[in-house]
Design brief:
CATH superfamily of the largest domain: NAD(P)-binding Rossmann-like Domain
Structural class: alpha/beta
Largest sheet: 6 strands, parallel
Helix content: 40-55%
Strand content: 5-15%
CATH topology of the largest domain: Rossmann fold
CATH architecture of the largest domain: 3-Layer(aba) Sandwich
Low-confidence stretches: none
Number of strands: 14
Bound molecules: nicotinamide-adenine-dinucleotide
Radius of gyration: 24 Å
CATH class of the largest domain: Alpha Beta
Mean pLDDT: 96
Shape: globular
Strand order of the largest sheet: 3-2-1-4-5-6
Number of helices: 18
Length: 436
């Protein structure tokens, strides 16, 4: 099938490439000329395991193309995925201008029946709004062309995006069109397994499933982060509590890790957006506003912990290991490092940071005040304290004797609970995790 992804970021690039790998002809469209140029040369702007190989293979086979030419791309496509960003406005509401702009272009250029699919995370009612925008554009052109708008939210996780796309837990398709259902069943056939079938539902249900899923996961994290403070007060270990809770099959063990707060381009934005939607309908979203508040408080909780050991941070050297919002991605959007580094810079601390993949993005973000080391050990040279913000595997089993030699003072604030407190004590570190 001839597919078009409008927006070639994490979602558009990964899903477009994976659809090409299934044998479809895919065009990824973007307004960012530099990005498109790089992609056409096989340079991938994001780090995602396995993606580079897939892009190279499908570019070579001619099944994958990158372009800025919206008119040609829209005319040639049978199925159009809208994969543009929906970033938060200052009040938390999703900024839908990119989605609406994409819908406008579709109405402006379409010349035959199209299935228009929203993969972007969008508020309930967006499918209806997109229909209206496309109809208005067609009316301006005096054209009567059929189209269907479908909500097909994307659930891929950064860091495992290719794998998630190829082996999804679920494929949710919101549409009332039998024609769209039939075509999309065929499109998804290679990856929809009998045990985990496609769920067909209404556009509105599909739109809400995505927000509700992210809000639920964020709630679990904030719940554990809330309890972590109690654990610290009473001398309990949040990891043991989480393990005990997770053995209950009704609860399960995933997303029960206390830490330094969730980040990324989805959870913070989607929690705020769904709270804002509830408020638009006249409900006060006490739960989700608190989930968000707890997360922000959690991000801010590490530096005060550090100050118990180092009351004055001015001119103290702080090593930071981990900048991405989670391992196996280079994405630093809303990552705890942004809050923590800002707090440290305000106290005039010197920062030495390292991340296996997110250095380029971090360098663009933190223009001043951060020394970017080439290795984790280099970041630790002369450090008064170490703060761990991302649980990359390479930080899990370091040479602690070497670390002790490199650091000036032996203080570790472990924002991801990757070390064992009693072992750290034995090794001679002043160690503080989260909720332990
Ligand atoms: N990142 C994730 O893990 C993830 C997972 C599931 C869903 N989502 C949702 O998917 C959407 C996209 O997220 P993302 O992380 O891929 O965003 P992104 O910012 O990485 O990519 C968006 C891309 O769209 C391009 N764009 C904007 N307007 C355009 C237009 N009119 N025409 C062509 N291109 C245009 C931008 O230049 C950018 O390259 C968001 O709604 C997000 O919430 C993201």
């Amino acid at each position: 099938m001839k597919l078009l992804a409008i927006g070639s970021g994490y979602v558009g690039l990964v899903s477009g490439t994976c659809f090409a790998d299934l044998g479809n002809d895919v065009v990824c469209l973007d307004i960012d000329k530099k990005k498109v140029e790089s992609l056409n040369n096989g340079i991938i702007p994001i780090y995602e395991s396995g993606l580079k190989e897939l892009v190279e293979r499908n570019l070579k086979l001619g099944r994958l193309k990158f372009t800025t030419d919206a008119e040609k791309a829209i005319k040639e496509a049978e199925i159009i995925f809208i994969c543009v960003g929906t970033p938060p406005k200052s009040n938390g509401e999703a900024d839908m201008s990119y989605v609406y702009k994409a819908a406008e272009s579709i109405g402006k250029y379409m010349n035959s029946y199209k299935i228009v699919i929203t993969k972007s995370t969008v508020p309930v009612g967006t499918a209806e709004k997109i229909k209206r925008i496309i109809r208005a554009e067609l009316k301006k052109r005096n054209k009567k062309i059929g189209f269907d708008v479908v909500s097909n939210p994307e659930f891929l996780r950064e860091g495992a995006a290719v794998k998630d796309f190829q082996n999804p837990d679920r494929i949710i398709i919101g549409t009332s069109s039998e024609k769209a259902k039939e075509i999309l069943t065929k499109l998804y056939k290679p990856i929809s397994r009998a045990t985990k079938p496609i769920m067909f539902t209404t556009e509105k249900n599909a739109e809400l499933v995505k927000y509700a899923s992210n809000a639920m996961l964020a709630t679990r994290i904030s719940f554990m982060n809330e309890l972590s403070h109690l654990c610290e007060e009473i001398g309990a270990d949040i990891k043991a509590v989480a393990k005990g809770m997770g053995l209950d099959t009704r609860i399960g063990s995933r997303f029960l890790q206390a830490g330094c707060g969730y980040g990324g381009s989805c959870f913070p934005k989607d929690v705020k957006a769904i709270a804002q939607i509830l408020e638009q309908y006249g409900f006060t979203s006490n739960l989700l506003r608190t989930v968000d508040y707890i997360n922000e408080r959690q991000k801010r909780s590490l530096v005060p912990k550090l100050k118990r050991f180092l009351p004055k941070l001015e001119d103290k050297t702080i090593a930071i290991l981990g900048l991405s919002f989670k391992p196996r991605t280079d994405d630093i959007r809303e990552a705890p490092c942004i809050t923590v580094i800002d707090q440290l810079l305000k106290e005039y601390a010197k920062i030495r940071a390292y991340d296996p993949e997110a250095m380029d993005n971090a360098k663009k973000f933190f223009r001043k005040g951060v020394f970017f080391a080439k290795t984790a050990y280099e970041a630790l040279e002369g450090a008064d304290a170490l703060i761990i913000l991302t649980e990359w595997d390479e930080f899990r089993e370091p040479d602690f004797e070497k670390i002790k030699q490199l650091m000036k003072q032996h203080i570790i604030i472990d924002g991801r609970n990757i070390y064992d407190p009693s072992e750290m004590k034995k090794l001679g570190f002043k160690y503080f995790g989260v909720g332990r």
